[in-house]
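dumping this here so i dont lose it
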């Protein structure tokens, strides 16, 4: 069942580095030397988290064709894009996917048929230029209204890390990932945490926070894999998934299973407030180094964040909120309460993956995130491992986000043969 309303991961830069971009100061954002060159400085004081006004759609159709984005060069990673498109189609063929439509005025069938038409173009013998020409001819373009009703979107990046781990608790590997408690109750339709089932069958909605859970002993028998550092275990929760290199030489994939329903609070901000690190020095590397030198200080600071993430073993991932595998530089995360899930998108933003400015590419909207709320935010999945982490950690830029849907005249009639199963 898709975890559509659960914040599955948190944006790597804007939240993992715990800087409140919506309240940015005029201090320049410094590039971490580990991540290479700097990306475009975003303008300060913009509220990228501005909610969509009641009754408004997150998407606006571009009626003036002269205002449509240039698609030249947007067809990157064609095989990955085709794989991602088919996964979106697979999701939309699940009956549960209809629960989350319509969105932004877009119907479920319209999204599926648009993806089907795009997949056929990708599978054809057409050149990239010919495919793009067909998209221009047969698809309408919609723009995200953005944070300012002018289309401005803040792009960040996330990735799946790789860590050393053990299936047994040892003196070296002491920090567990926990499975869901057996009495954890969630909404089967949305995945939202409802509380803990009591012995009399009632549900207690007052789920313990992180500090209380860890001190209570309720999780003592739920650990299934152990990390070397507490911050690594925490980081896996932030990213929502990980690949673990086990001491026996095997690899294990772990993914998000649920959370305790508490709101997320910034670990980095807690460090700054406690005087552990200066805001200007706040980055992932400085946080890792601080907790390696002061491991006893991690849990008191982490406890300021009441949210606790539970995990499960998984295979074939990493997975997004659609319960479909996400693809590096082909999958994005948006607010699924306002955007149509699984859709074909186009992003334009200066990313650190190309000298082209802006980086323009087709994407599939296949994930969600705790910091990815409102029409002014988008997170790009960079892939797996350290190199993807370097890209994710250096992605912070304004850009534009578009959605593409078949023009009505190119939609097959409902009586026509189609692979869509109603």
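and the seq i came up w/
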């Amino acid at each position: 069942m898709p975890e559509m309303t659960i914040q599955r991961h948190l944006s790597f830069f804007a939240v993992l580095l715990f800087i409140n971009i919506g309240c940015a100061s005029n201090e320049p954002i410094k590039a971490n030397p580990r991540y290479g060159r700097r990306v475009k400085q975003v303008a300060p004081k913009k509220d990228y988290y501005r909610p969509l006004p009641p009754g408004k759609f997150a998407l606006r159709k571009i009626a003036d064709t002269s205002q449509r984005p240039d698609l030249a060069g947007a067809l990157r990673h064609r095989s990955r894009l085709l794989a991602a498109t088919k996964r979106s189609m697979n999701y939309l063929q699940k009956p549960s996917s209809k629960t989350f439509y319509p969105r932004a005025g877009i119907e479920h069938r319209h999204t599926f048929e648009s993806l089907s038409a795009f997949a056929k173009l990708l599978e054809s013998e057409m050149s990239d230029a010919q495919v793009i020409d067909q998209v221009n001819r047969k698809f309408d373009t919609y723009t995200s209204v953005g944070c300012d009703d002018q289309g401005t979107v803040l792009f960040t990046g996330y990735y799946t890390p790789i860590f050393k781990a053990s299936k047994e608790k040892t003196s070296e590997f002491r920090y567990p990932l926990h499975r869901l408690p057996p009495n954890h109750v969630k909404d089967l339709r949305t995945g939202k945490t409802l509380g803990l089932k009591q012995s009399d069958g009632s549900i207690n909605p007052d789920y313990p926070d992180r500090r209380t859970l860890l001190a209570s002993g309720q999780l003592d028998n739920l650990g299934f894999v152990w990390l070397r550092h507490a911050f690594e275990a925490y980081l896996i929760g932030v990213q929502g998934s990980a690949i673990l290199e086990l001491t026996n030489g095997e690899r294990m994939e772990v993914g998000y299973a649920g959370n305790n329903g508490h709101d997320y609070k910034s670990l980095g901000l807690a460090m700054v407030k406690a005087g552990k690190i200066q805001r200007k020095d706040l980055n992932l590397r400085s946080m890792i180094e601080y907790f390696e030198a002061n491991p006893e200080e991690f849990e008191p600071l982490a406890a300021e964040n009441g949210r606790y993430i539970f995990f499960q073993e998984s295979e074939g991932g990493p997975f997004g909120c659609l319960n479909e595998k996400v693809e590096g530089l082909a999958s994005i995360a948006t607010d699924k309460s306002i955007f149509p899930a699984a859709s074909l998108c186009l992003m334009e933003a200066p990313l650190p993956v190309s000298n082209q400015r802006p980086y323009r590419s087709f994407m599939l909207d296949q994930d969600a995130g705790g910091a990815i709320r409102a029409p002014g935010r988008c997170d790009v999945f960079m892939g797996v491992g350290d190199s993807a982490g370097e890209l994710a950690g250096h992605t912070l830029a304004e850009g534009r986000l578009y959605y593409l849907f078949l023009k009505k005249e190119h939609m097959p009639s409902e009586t026509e043969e189609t692979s869509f199963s109603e």
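The longest strand covers residues 396-406.
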